[in-house]
Specification:
Arc Repressor Mutant, subunit A; alpha+beta; three-stranded antiparallel sheet; 92 residues; 38% helix
Length: 92
C-alpha cells in the first residue's frame, strides 16, 4: 500500500472528549453545534476532532463579556405584573 501522507485525525465521541480534556459534555456539544470546533455526525453519533479541540483550548482567550450580562432591569416582567406597574389594578 502506498503512503500518500494522509494524517487521520483522532476522533472521539462527545462523552470521551469531555473525559479526556476534563470539561463538561455540554461544553463540548455547545462548541460542536456552534461550529467552533471540528465535528462530524456518523451513524447518528457526533465525533469530535481531538486535535482541533486541543488547538481550540490552547488558543482561546478570555474576553470581556460585560455586554452580554443581563441585569434585573433587562429581565422581562411577568405579564401578570404589567398592569400593576402601569397603575391599573384589576380586581375579580
Amino acid at each position: 500500500m502506498e503512503d500518500i501522507g494522509l494524517k487521520i485525525p483522532r476522533m472521539e465521541t462527545i462523552v470521551k472528549t469531555a473525559e479526556l480534556f476534563g470539561v463538561s459534555q455540554y461544553f463540548v456539544r455547545k462548541l460542536a453545534n456552534s461550529g467552533k470546533i471540528k465535528a462530524v455526525r456518523i451513524s447518528g453519533r457526533i465525533l469530535i476532532n481531538c486535535d482541533k479541540f486541543a488547538e481550540y483550548l490552547n488558543n482561546v482567550t478570555l474576553q470581556d463579556d460585560t455586554d452580554n450580562i443581563r441585569t434585573t432591569e433587562d429581565k422581562p416582567k411577568p405579564r401578570f405584573a404589567a398592569h400593576i406597574q402601569n397603575g391599573i389594578r384589576r380586581l375579580g
